[in-house]
Design brief:
Elements (H helix, E strand, L loop, with lengths): L2 H11 L5 E5 H6 L2 H6 L4 H17 L4 E8 L15 H21 L2 H11 L4 H27 L3 H4 L1 E2 L18 E2 L12 E6 L7 H15 L5
Parallel strand pairs: 1-2, 2-5
Antiparallel strand pairs: 3-4
Helix pairs in contact: 4-7, 5-6, 5-9, 7-9
């Protein structure tokens, strides 16, 4: 999607809306596939998240329902819906992620050795890009949840900001969106509901770790439905 046109359309019509149903992948990245392929920086995506949150400031009675997906890790070589390198290294990156996640869960040195062996079969720059994009998307999802957590407190006080990053793997909240709002006009939580789904069902992997971090965060902050 053309994000400039999409955001302009939402901005032009939001005043007449009572409800916004929003895919975060569409609003923040330009689509589900774009969320897996885009090279937008974390700062750029966080700015779009701040813009989404600010819609509540403009339309205090707006009920926003937002969905997000933990980015998948396909186990095959095909790049139709993935970055270009998935055609060559997709299955290997899946195995790398699987055994790294298994090591993190069970702490068997043999699993770490297997993960490292798979990583060596992929150019280092591609491994780095793979890890970077996962980190970016996960950080943004956590920022979305933190905005929801803070909306009953710091949103009413004037801003939504992040605390430490101990709650998730490879998360960096230093570039979290800061959203200012008039406390007298805020009406309830920022989002009426947030729906987060998991596209994969592997037993181990970076995506499984991210999903677990999300579950732990929502449970710790009373966000589970």
């Amino acid at each position: 999607a053309n994000l400039t046109l999409l955001h302009a359309w939402v901005d032009a019509n939001i005043a007449a809306c009572d409800v916004l149903v929003c895919s975060s992948e569409l609003y923040l990245y330009g689509g589900l596939i774009a969320s897996r392929q885009s090279n937008d920086t974390q700062d750029e995506v966080m700015a779009r998240l701040a813009h989404l949150a600010a819609l509540k400031q403009r339309r205090p009675s707006l009920r926003m329902y937002v969905s997000s997906v933990v980015m998948r890790i396909p186990s095959y070589n095909e790049d139709v819906e993935e970055p270009w390198y998935w055609a060559l290294y997709g299955a290997t990156l899946f195995q790398f992620s699987y055994y790294l996640g298994k090591y993190d869960a069970l702490h068997n040195a043999s699993d770490l050795a297997t993960a490292e062996a798979y990583a060596k079969q992929v150019p280092p720059a591609i491994v780095q890009e793979f890890l970077w994009r996962r980190s970016r998307n996960h950080n943004v999802t956590m920022a979305l949840l933190e905005l929801q957590t803070k909306s009953e407190h710091s949103w009413r006080a004037g801003s939504a900001s992040h605390g430490n990053s101990d709650h998730a793997p490879h998360i960096n909240s230093d570039h979290a969106p800061h959203v200012n709002s008039d406390a007298s006009h805020q009406d309830g939580p920022l989002f009426a509901n947030v729906y987060i789904t998991l596209d994969d069902n592997a037993l181990y992997g970076l995506n499984i770790e991210e999903a677990e971090a999300i579950r732990n965060y929502t449970a710790a902050h009373g966000l589970e439905s």
